[in-house]
């Protein structure tokens, strides 16, 4: 006779329910005896019987809910947990059990049945609390152990971090595919951890799998940049596996997370930056940073440039400064391939950068 897995599960649930029925029935009986007089009167005896029946019925109906099902869910979860995380969970549970042992002595002095079951409940609760706390701070624990192994552990640094937590920055898809964030992080200007939510990774993956070639190239470039940054020692990148209920749009999720974590958002998306600032979130734009470190160009300044291409308007020539700023030179279309002296007439600021407009000096006009 072949026993199917479903039949085995039903049989296991039935056995556990029977055990729970007798256990909770006995618990109800003991509570009734403890609350009754000596000897119990008729009402107290009836109450004890009702407590016994209630405990037995509760155990028969609900025991599998808080025994078999949590254990099965725990086994499935443990199969997907890495060895490092499992070690942290076990260590946290052991620390919780140590505190439970200390609490078991005063709890055991309580009158029955609290003195009998109090230490057991406390042990389970503190073990779960310890495992949860250590799991949520597993990265900090790993850094602490690594620092102590290298001999660079400093209590003063730990106290400083406790008073002023390390800085964190949420990073947007536009800033990742831009590519400049890797160079900025490598220089050390970003002092902290770059947080990459999993929905940003999903957006990058959808770009990398896109049918459009330009979007596909951007997505693959973004994933390569993140992989490179994770391998660099001086740029900490952490992936956040978080859910943002009630938000469907990626920009909305980023703003909500930034408010929860109280950290800035690094983005090149102008619209996201405006929305985030309206909701009190600090925005760091790589475009603004690039504009700030560019050499200053002001009206009336002399520039010597190479005319490289024709402009959109009639007779315009196009050149570029060393930092990539486009220079539009009037009446320079005929001078393509030549270096000319110009005078800056105005500087136009756009969302993506600056455009410098210039005109030829008189001697260049005479030579032309």
State the gist of this model:
With 368 residues, the protein is an alpha/beta fold. The protein has helices spanning 5-35, 42-62, 68-79, 83-108, 114-136, 138-150, 155-163, 173-178, 180-187, 198-208, 213-231, 250-261, 270-278, 286-293, 362-367; strands at residues 168-171, 193-197, 236-240, 265-267, 283-285, 302-306, 309-310, 317-320, 326-330, 339-349, 354-360.
CATH class placement of the largest domain: Alpha Beta
Shape: rod-shaped
Helix content: 55-70%
As for the number of domains, it is 4
Describe the fold and architecture:
This protein has 15 helices and 11 strands. It is α/β, with parallel strands linked by helices. The protein folds into 4 domains: 80 residues, no CATH class; 82 residues, no CATH class; 124 residues, Rossmann fold (3-Layer(aba) Sandwich); 74 residues, Beta Barrel (OB fold (Dihydrolipoamide Acetyltransferase, E2P)), CATH 2.40.50. A hairpin with a 4-residue loop joins β10 and β11. α4 runs antiparallel to α5.
What are the salient characteristics of this protein?
368 residues, alpha/beta, Rossmann fold, 4 domains, six-stranded mixed β-sheet, five-stranded parallel β-sheet, 15 helices, 58% helix, 15% strand, disordered N terminus
Topology readout:
Elements (H helix, E strand, L loop, with lengths): L4 H31 L6 H21 L5 H12 L3 H26 L5 H23 L1 H13 L4 H9 L4 E4 L1 H6 L1 H8 L5 E5 H11 L4 H19 L4 E5 L9 H12 L3 E3 L2 H9 L4 E3 H8 L8 E5 L2 E2 L6 E4 L5 E5 L8 E11 L4 E7 L1 H6 L1
Parallel strand pairs: 1-2, 1-4, 2-3, 4-5, 9-11
Antiparallel strand pairs: 6-10, 7-8, 8-9, 10-11
